[in-house]
Known about the structure:
transmembrane, transmembrane helix, single chain, membrane, L-cystine uptake protein TcyP (Sodium:dicarboxylate symporter family)
Amino acid sequence: MFEVYDVVLIPLILGLVELFKRAGVSGKILPFISLALGIIVGVVYVAEFDLKQGILVGAMLGLSASGLYSGTKNTIESKE
């Protein structure tokens, strides 16, 4: 079951997506990578291989990380 402290997985996914970005992956693909990583983490770690719950929680984690990334990026770009 998803616990409150599992929210720390969002910055972890964000960091992994940043590694993909620095490796030269196209910015258009990064949200999909974030979603995929979230689902993997959701299925394996959070839901302990309960596929339905893992996909649901993982999608939430991945999309949250993607939104955090794009929101931060847009904020920084608007200040420059």
